Amino acid sequence: MKEIDIDELEFEFLAPDKMNDNEKLYLLKERISRLSTADRYILLLYLDLGSYAKVADFLNCSATTIYLKIKKIREEVI
């Protein structure tokens, strides 16, 4: 299994960029940055790995668990 640098992912996906982000994207990044560390970690893994199953495999849990966590995160962010 590949090693994942969460700090690098956080910078790549979440670093607010007032010059290039439109207002909605900037606000979305702000809301994501306020998530708990665990929720942000799961979301970043999902963005990087691209599927519930891959995140579940990486975290050694079920895809259903990841699906439910992502659903909860979406509800918090949107």
How would you characterize this protein structure?
This protein is an all-alpha fold and 78 residues long. The chain has five helices and no strands. α1 (6-14) packs across α3. The longest helix has 15 residues, at 63-77. It starts with 5 loop residues before the first helix and ends with a helix. The model has no long low-confidence stretch (mean pLDDT 86).
Structure summarized in a few sentences:
With 78 residues, the protein is mainly α.
Distance, first to last CA? 32 Å
Mean pLDDT: 86
Q: In percent, how helical is the residue content?
A: over 70%
Number of strands: 0
Class by helix and strand content?
A: mainly alpha
Task: For the structure shown, list the relevant keywords.
mainly alpha; 5 helices
Task: Set down the secondary structure blueprint.
Blueprint: H1 6-14, H2 23-33, H3 37-49, H4 52-59, H5 63-77
